[in-house]
Specification:
Chain lengths: 422, 481
């Protein structure tokens, strides 16, 4: 059996950045396994621009962003298996993968980085009543058909969900000659980035209906119409508010679910809110030596933050593989948070031997204006920031400076609070 | 008009039509199955609970009871001969109040009279050892160890493939529009020309009354009775291990909760009479009802793990009985009408009997070379490492995973299309090898599945459909700029 110091699973932006960072941190025995025939993950089908503003200070398309990382990855000379799907991972870090050329392959790793990305929530998971014809697609499927295959999956379109992929597809389908009748969002706010609402809907006069949902699909073979209804504060449809749209396509952009079959198979503890594994500030899961980053950990809005998080995971994996003592016995200080916050990643902080600031990423559960976000250890303030507006669609972060962290040895927990800023 | 004269034409390629074809293919004679859809198993046989009922429920003395018990006893051997998934997981009927106990006892007695093996009433303590998540209200239950579960698609495909292998022909996209007597023969008129035959089998599901009434003066009426379901992800699998019914009582008829042979959990069905024989839409009311009703049987069922909802139509005949065999005034026309639940369980026995009736009528001889076996589509990941690697050397496509949720390889998808009769649509592939059947419901693999279908059928990707003509996925090209 072949052995590696670090094996990275998934060659999207997360996997690429993790592998590069492992290399930059001294690891010279790295294998990246990717199912597709090309590196780059989901970025390959995101041909619009808006990627890389934070990382490269310029606006790139998805494939361009992926390309920069792929090239850096190839320069490291790390091993790569493309068109190879990982089937399972055992607790002693033996990875079973399969491809057309070699058949079943097993490799052993000292450390593993999980970066398998996510998939879209399906119609079934949303339980939309009605018929089940052709013409109901996830926005990502439509994105692939239009951007990769040059085929139009529909001409008159209603989009359910105002996640970023849905917004971007509203624009894309319009540019390709389709008529997008409406974007319908269950919540009273959009799940997407503000800039996408402006650039993809408002600029094209596509109406966005907040607090609405699709309550019926019609058509035996192909979608013929969908009914949209307003919902009350419990998200239940209100009778008498139905609007019927004749259309041939319903696109769904109702959230992404981290792809964690491998993680769960491995027995790692999972976070019920993110659907990703529970990690500490080293991005290490509950299985020692297994790290996670990118969309498999929690769904990101911006790829720049994926790359940044993945670099940390790659560095930690390299250090773990080099048998750095700090990973042996860890004291984890749990991160608690107030009710406005839905989750934080990481969910605990490890202080011993840290060399950098710790970035806590989190999402709120509603729209909040003029709030003060504070990170505390007991009554000691570690960090504080004022937010003019926070929305569920945009990931937030708060940085715990290493200087402050060094002083809180013995703290029992770290708390993140959200309060009015007056 | 085709010149060939068939011995038997079967209308409908559901489990009943395919079972008749399979048992009839034991005999010499020309048989064909006419199906209006693009594939086998597109009607009720694709949307039901997948339960092989033990047979305690159907009223003693009815054809339903007779065929149910006989059919369910045939399943274990049949599933071996035809290599489809069947599991003898046992069924439980919950009784939620002492008041209802007498009803449970009569159900038990009815079952014993029907000849069901192993029935007994279990009290709450034992019930909890069988099913730990059972409702706090459950006082006792009828336990039927003979109950089983089956993959209804696979069972139907298996029968169809075995029938085809033994000489039966299948015509798809062929809708029967009329049946007329011509001398000693029947002329079956379809949207793709007419066929002459000595006998006709009416296995048209919800439309079986239409064909019966075309040829017989004693009219029947089939009402579509819709049943809706939730299917839960495999991560919810194991929450129950038996099929759990509830005794109809003061809380209503109840819904069942059952594992499937693929490790999912199925919850449903509702029961609602409707007019449209094709309306398999789901409704908000129906889905709400399932939520409420299932909670009465099972505690904390993880309905948040729903991956899809769907509905099917029972062919409910007014007298709630199967109509099987020749009507008095239509010689050579054989009904399999009103085959509602337990039709899936009964299908093998119905098929065997109809085949015997036809063979007797036409004096058909048995074939010497009838082959009762069929091998299912290989799942390469069930092989051990060495055999898998040998296989991938010859068929590299068995090494390429297309559907990530269900780990389905390209090889399996190609096999599904190459079968006879084979998949012609995305749904046809899905029902045969489960690509797109998992938690993302084809979100990621459907474009790849479309490419494989186009390649195998030698057509353009724009011609690939979800479920036959009119359900094309692609409606045009991108704008040429
Ligand atoms: C359909 C879709 C569209 C999106 N559009 C945008 C957008 O327009 N703008 C934006 O900023 N963000 C977008 N996102 C968010 C985007 O996914 C992230 O910014 C980023 O791509 C996540 O990177 P990742 O590496 O975590 O995941 P991915 O890019 O999804 O990469 C994961 C990789 O892992 C591989 N993999 C998974 N499982 C296995 C296995 N078992 N074996 C081998 N390989 C495996 C996959 O093939 C894939 O290449 C989109 C996401 C989706 C799902
Ligand atoms: C909600 C529900 C739950 C059920 N649960 C169970 C269960 O757990 N166990 C059990 O034993 N049974 C169950 N059943 C019953 C079982 O599913 C049916 O009895 C069985 O599938 C009927 O098979 P069939 O072949 O008669 O009908 P179908 O599968 O409907 O086949 C009829 C075929 O005829 C074709 N057809 C119709 N008209 C024409 C035409 N003009 N020309 C050509 N073709 C035509 C249709 O397209 C269709 O393919 C359930 C039924 C329902 C609705």
């Amino acid at each position: 059996m072949t052995c590696y110091e670090v094996v990275v699973i998934g060659g999207g932006p997360a996997g690429l950045a993790a592998a590069i960072s492992a290399y930059e941190n001294g690891c010279r025995s790295i294998l990246l396994i990717e199912r597709d025939k090309k590196l780059g993950g989901i970025l390959n089908q995101c041909i619009h621009n808006g990627f890389g503003l934070h990382t490269f200070k310029e606006e790139l398309t998805g494939p361009e962003y992926a390309d920069r990382y792929s090239r850096r990855f190839y320069e490291t000379g790390a091993d790569l298996m493309l068109q190879t799907t990982v089937l399972d991972i055992s607790e002693d870090k033996v990875i079973r993968a399969i491809n057309e050329k070699d058949g079943l392959v097993t490799v052993k790793a000292k450390a593993i980085v999980l970066s398998m990305g996510c998939r879209e929530r399906s119609r079934g998971a949303l339980n939309i009543p009605g018929t089940r014809p052709a013409g109901v697609y996830s926005a990502g499927t439509a994105q692939k058909l239009v951007n990769i295959d040059g085929k139009m999956p529909g001409k008159k379109v209603v989009i359910l969900g105002s996640g970023d992929i849905g917004l971007i597809m509203a624009r894309r389908m319009t540019l390709e000659g389709a008529k997008v009748l409406a974007v319908v969002e269950l919540m009273p706010y959009s799940g997407g980035l503000k800039r996408n609402i402006v650039q993809c809907l408002e600029d094209f006069d596509i109406p966005l209906y907040l607090s609405h949902t699709v309550t019926k699909v019609e058509g035996e073979n192909r979608v013929e119409a969908v009914t949209v209804s307003e919902v009350d504060e419990n998200r239940k449809p209100i009778q008498g508010t139905e609007i019927r749209y004749e259309c041939d396509t319903l696109l769904l952009s109702c959230g992404l679910i981290p792809e964690n079959e491998l993680t769960q198979g491995l027995g790692a503890s999972m976070n019920k809110v993110t659907n990703g594994p529970v990690v500490d500030s080293d991005l290490e899961t509950s299985i020692p030596g297994v790290f996670a980053c990118g969309n498999v950990l929690h769904v990101h809005d911006l790829v720049d933050f994926v790359s940044e998080e993945a670099s940390d995971a790659g560095r930690n994996a390299a250090m773990y593989a080099a048998a750095e003592p700090r990973y042996k016995v860890k004291t984890k200080i749990p991160v608690k948070f107030s009710k406005e916050i839905r989750y934080t990643v990481p969910s605990s902080v490890v202080l011993a031997g840290i060399s950098e600031d710790i970035k806590l990423r989190f999402r709120v559960g509603n729209i909040y204006r003029y709030k003060k976000v504070t990170a505390l250890a007991g009554d000691r303030v570690l960090a504080k920031k004022i937010r003019k507006v926070m929305t569920p669609g945009e990931m937030e972060e708060i940085v715990l400076p290493i200087g402050k962290l060094k002083d809180i040895k013995g703290a029992l927990e770290i708390t993140i609070t959200v309060e009015d800023n007056d | 008009m085709q010149n060939k004269i068939y011995d038997t034409l079967i209308i409908g390629a559901g489990i009943v039509g395919c079972s008749v074809a399979r048992y009839l293919s034991k005999y010499k004679g020309g048989i064909a199955v006419l199906e209006r859809k693009e594939d086998v198993c597109c009607g009720t046989s694709k949307a039901n609970s997948g339960i092989v009922h033990a047979g305690f429920d159907a009223k003693h003395g009815t054809l339903m009871a007779l065929y149910n018990v006989r059919g369910s006893r045939m399943y274990p051997k049949l599933s071996e001969e035809l290599d489809f998934k069947y599991e003898n997981n046992g069924s439980i009927v919950l009784c939620l109040s002492e008041e209802d106990r007498p009803k449970l006892v009569s159900l038990y007695e009815n079952g014993v009279r029907n000849g069901v093996f192993g029935l007994r009433i279990v009290e709450r303590d034992e019930l909890l050892t069988l099913e730990p998540h059972i409702s706090d209200e459950a006082v006792c239950a009828l336990y039927a160890p003979a109950g089983g579960i089956v993959c209804p698609f696979d069972a139907t495909f298996a029968m169809a493939e075995n029938a085809a292998h033994n000489g039966a022909e299948f015509f798809f996209d062929t809708k029967v529009t009329d049946i007329v007597r011509e001398d000693e023969l029947w002329k079956v008129v379809t949207t793709r020309g007419s066929y002459l035959t000595r006998t006709v089998v009416n296995a048209a599901g919800c439309y079986s009354d239409v064909f019966h009434n075309m040829v017989s003066s004693s009219k029947i009426k089939i009402t579509p009775r819709r049943g809706e379901y939730f299917l839960l992800d495999r991560t919810a699998g194991g929450y129950v291990s038996h099929t759990i019914f509830r005794l109809p009582g003061k809380m209503g008829k109840g819904v069942l909760v059952t594992p499937t042979v693929h490790g999912n959990i199925l919850v449903g069905p509702t029961a609602e009479d409707i007019d449209d024989k094709d309306d398999v839409s789901t409704t908000a009311d129906g889905l709400d009802k399932i939520r409420l009703q299932s909670a009465l049987s099972i505690k904390d069922l993880p309905l948040n793990k729903t991956i899809t909802s769907f509905s099917g139509l029972r062919s409910h005949e007014a007298g709630h009985e199967f109509i099987i065999g020749e009507p008095e005034d239509a010689e050579g026309f054989f009904d399999c009408a009103g085959i509602e639940s337990p039709g899936l369980s009964a299908a093998p026995a119905i098929g065997e009997d109809i085949a015997t009736m036809i063979a007797d009528k036409l004096n058909l001889e048995e074939k010497e070379d009838f082959d009762p076996y069929r091998t299912g589509i290989l799942d390469p990941l069930t092989l051990d490492e060495d055999r898998l690697n040998e296989l991938i050397k010859v068929r590299p496509d068995y090494g390429k995973i297309i559907c990530r949720c269900e780990s389905v390889t390209e090889g399996q998808i190609r096999d599904a299309i190459r079968r006879i009769p084979g998949a012609r649509s995305i749904d046809g592939v899905k029902r045969r090898v489960r690509a797109g059947m998992g938690r993302c419901q084809g979100g990621f693999c459907s474009p790849s599945v479309m490419e494989i279908i186009a390649d195998e059928l030698n057509c353009d990707i724009s011609d690939v459909t979800k479920k036959g003509q009119g359900s094309e996925i692609i409606l045009g090209e991108n704008k040429v700029l």
